Amino acid sequence: MENQHFLGRVGYRQKILPLPPFIGTNVYLMGFGEIGKMYGDPFPAPKLSGDGTIGMIAQTAIGPVFIGTSAGDTGHYKWFFQLGKVF
Description:
mainly beta, five-stranded antiparallel sheet
């Protein structure tokens, strides 16, 4: 049987302040939510799984820098740092 899955994501981005031109362009506050399910999983979940994320992204001279935190409906949490393409 072929594995099947789906993932939905919705988000929002709000500009919060400009950066000096030699550092980059702007800093944004971001938030998004995800919901998904995987079929054919060896440990099947009885319901859809969901996560929420909030963080800040800066458009810098070296590329986008994203720092944020995420929490899931099953009690898992994480902090993360990302340099490069966010979506």
